[in-house]
Amino acid sequence: MRRTVQFQAPERGAERESRQGETRQPEPLRTEFGFELPRGYVDESGTVHRSGVMRLATARDELVPLRDDRVRENSAYLSVVLISRVVTRIGTVEDIHPGVIEDLFASDLAFLQDFYRRINAEGHTRAAVNCPSCNKEFTVDLAGGRLGES
Question: Which 8-state DSSP code applies to residue 120?
């Protein structure tokens, strides 16, 4: 079952006080995040799929894989099952299951693991980086674009 829900986080006391007289609306909670795989998923017909969508994880998403026999036999399989539960689409492929995640290139799986951590633990897909040439700080959005682009 696929759900898209948008919630508004309740304002804390200090936020409410600082906004008195303002008409600014709080930002709605994002539950789905687009991404671009570094290499891409290659389906049975040889088509490469790079863009996809990952949703926020629920407590159930993190608990159910712990009952999976494959995870009990090999704890490293936990990330495969977990990622397959929260990725809702890769290209035109919407039936995302552990077999699809197993067929990803290792760099794409590592990307999705980091992406999962960013949107679920940190709440955003932005990362602060430094230019190696001039050492200037700037922010990139990891959710989109191709490698080397910002």
Answer: I
pLDDT tens figures, 43-74: 999 999 999 999 999 999 999 999 999 999 99
Rounded to 5°, the CA angle 122-125-130 comes to 100
Q: Residue 80: which of 62, 98, 104, 93 has the closest Cα?
A: 98
pTM (whole model) above 0.70: no
Q: What is the phi-psi region of residue 148: left when phi exceeds 0, alpha when psi lies from -120 to 50, beta otherwise?
A: left
How far apart CA 57 and CA 23 sit, in angstroms, is: 32
Alpha helices (runs of H) in 1-145, residue ranges in sequence order: 13-18, 59-63, 69-73, 78-86, 98-102, 106-117
**Cβ(35)–Cβ(115) under 8 Å?**
yes
pLDDT in tens, 5-19: 444 444 555 555 555
